[in-house]
Amino acid sequence: MTTLKEVRLAQPLEGRFELKANFGGAPFWCAIDYRASSSQTDVVDVRVAEGADPETVRWAPYVREGVVSAERALIRDGRCASLCLEIRRIHTHPIDTTAEGCRFYGQSLLNHIVGASRAE
After folding, report:
1. Which domains, ranges and CATH numbers included, belong to the chain?
2. For the stretch 2-33, what's the b/e string if a residue is b when 16 or more beta carbons lie within 10 angstroms of its beta carbon?
3. DSSP letters along the chain, please?
4. Predicted local confidence at residue 24, as pLDDT
5. What does pTM read for this prediction?
6. How do 83-91 and 44-48 pair as beta strands?
7. Residue of 20, 24, 23, 28 lying closest to 59 (CA atoms)
């Protein structure tokens, strides 16, 4: 049995996550207000904040899919993330916010949080 190296945060991490990059092709954009903290589980528990606005509720499942995809990649690399990730708000654009883009941002957000855990 392989033991996974656990990713934990020494203290909660919160803020607004957005990428500033030109991806080429059709543009996509969103920004995610979040709070991440360590949890007692060996998975990433993604939650939408209570009272979240309708746009956040609409796009959160796609962000969650991206987070889950990034989590699977962590597991393949022999790591697990023991985190609670609260999505407080997803800022959107009427044209440039897409399901694919939200998945990409979700993956990138988890990778950002994991990177921050290494810096602690």
Report:
1. 30-119 (3.30.230.10)
2. eeeeebebeeebeeebebeeeeeeeebbbbbb
3. -PPPEEE--SS-EEEEE------SSS----EEEEEEEE-SSSSEEEEEPTT--HHHHHHHHHHHHHHHHHHHHHHHTTEEE-EEEEEEEEE--TTT--HHHHHHHHHHHHHHHHHHHHH-
4. 64
5. 0.90
6. parallel
7. 28
Q: Which has the closest alpha carbon to 49: 36, 62, 39?
A: 36
Provide CB contacts within 8 A for 56, sequence distance 6+: 48, 49, 87, 88, 89, 90
Residues in the chain: 120
Amino acid at residue number 3:
T
Angle at 13 between CA 7 and CA 19, to 5 degrees: 95
Residue 35: what are its φ and ψ, rounded to 5°?
-140, 125
Could you state, in chain order, the average pLDDT of each consecutive group of 10 residues for the chain (120 residues)?
73 91 72 94 92 97 97 90 95 91 95 81
Residue type for position 105 = Y
pLDDT of amino acid 1: 44
